[in-house]
Backbone:
């Protein structure tokens, strides 16, 4: 009888092979950009949320080697309408454009754009709808910041140590 799942020996050999090839995690305290980046975001609540998430993921730099500028835009689109024509749900679509520059030289290292969306319902009271809209904007800011970090982590593999 044969099994399709890997044995313990196969799993251990696979881990040793990864260790031997120079495999290293790109997240964490030893990441190339951790503690190396200063952030410039919009002077808005969403900009503050993006900056806070970036600081959680990449740390705060005492002497930054890079400057990351992020600009966020968003739009709302109707995603559900009743037969009476009342809107019951909105999608919030966000775009974050980022530029990473070398703090010492001012030279652009890379740039990119990330997009994401989230939604909220408008079926509750006015207060509930406003709270849902605020929560959707907060979630969108965190999602966009995380996507920027993902792109930066891939980029960091090519940056000089």
Residues:
């Amino acid at each position: 009888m044969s099994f399709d799942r890997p044995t313990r020996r196969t799993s251990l050999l696979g881990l040793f092979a990864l260790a031997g090839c120079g495999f290293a995690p790109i997240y964490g305290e030893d990441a190339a950009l951790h503690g190396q980046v200063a952030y410039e975001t919009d002077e808005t609540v969403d900009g503050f949320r993006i900056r806070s998430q970036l600081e959680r993921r990449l740390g705060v730099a005492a002497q930054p080697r890079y400057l990351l500028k992020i600009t966020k835009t968003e739009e709302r689109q109707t995603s559900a309408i009743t037969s009476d024509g009342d809107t019951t749900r909105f999608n919030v679509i966000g775009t974050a454009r980022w530029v990473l520059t070398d703090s010492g030289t001012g030279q652009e290292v890379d740039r990119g754009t990330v997009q994401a969306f989230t939604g909220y319902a408008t079926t509750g009271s006015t207060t509930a709808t406003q709270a849902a809209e605020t929560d959707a904007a907060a979630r969108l800011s965190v999602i966009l910041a995380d996507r920027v970090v993902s792109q930066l982590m891939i980029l960091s593999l090519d940056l000089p140590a």
User: Anything to note?
Assistant: The beta strands are 37-40, 66-81, 87-102, 108-121. Helices lie at 8-20, 45-58, 126-156. DSSP finds three helices and four strands in the chain.
